[in-house]
Amino acid sequence: MKLFGCLRSPLFGSTGGFRVSLDRVGDEPIGMVATYCPSAPQSQGLVIRDVTADEGSAILRWNQRHPKRQVRPGLAILEVNGCCSTAEMLREVKDSNCLELLLCEHLTPLQSEILSSSRRRSKAIAAVEAVIQEIEVDTEVTEQCAICYEDLTMQVIQLPCGHCFHKSCATKWLASCKAHQRCPLCNQKLEIYT
């Protein structure tokens, strides 16, 4: 893997912008979770919510070699391989093994709100997943998820009250707001700590 030094971008000067070059080998993880708001202007870019501890990730290697310019949560990604729109950046991150990132340490108010909202949602989802239990489905019996009305065939969870739903449906429902922290069928309150 080839890693280049952090370069100050002339675009940012002293405002805290810098470039990071990452080379991903095969299907190895990049090592970050980024977030964005689909309805925000495309120029808002991506915001790094978490840097994962994936062994052998491109970001872990970068951070080990560049302790003064580490990729960390709370940085904005303004450009990936020369692409500036959110959709193009996401495509580049997904498809490219060589990534040139332009990062900025100073978030706009909208980027700060996107980051805060994503962290709240991630915390709510983790709390929900702590109380739901995934179960095996009896293929002889066809039940429907009361949230999406599709057959319960895979990734089925059971709430403490005994009602079953698709894991993704129940997680979305329960994490969406405190008022929804009840079973959609029997209205039993769930102890979810967010």
TrEMBL record:
SUPFAM superfamilies associated with the record: RING/U-box (SSF57850)
PANTHER family for this protein: RING FINGER AND PROTEASE ASSOCIATED DOMAIN-CONTAINING
Presence of the UniProt keyword Translocase in the record: no
Name of protein: E3 ubiquitin-protein ligase RNF139 (RING finger protein 139) (RING-type E3 ubiquitin transferase RNF139) (Translocation in renal carcinoma on chromosome 8 protein)
Chain coiled-coil ranges: none
Entry GO MF terms: transferase activity
Residue intervals of the RING-type domain: 145-187
InterPro entries given in the database record: E3_ubiquitin-ligase_domain (IPR051826), Znf_RING (IPR001841), Znf_RING/FYVE/PHD (IPR013083)
Record has Lipoprotein as a keyword: no
Pfam families on file: zf-RING_2
Gene3D superfamilies from the UniProt entry: Zinc/RING finger domain, C3HC4 (zinc finger)
Species of origin: Durusdinium trenchii
Keywords for the protein's UniProt record, in alphabetical order: Metal-binding, Transferase, Zinc, Zinc-finger
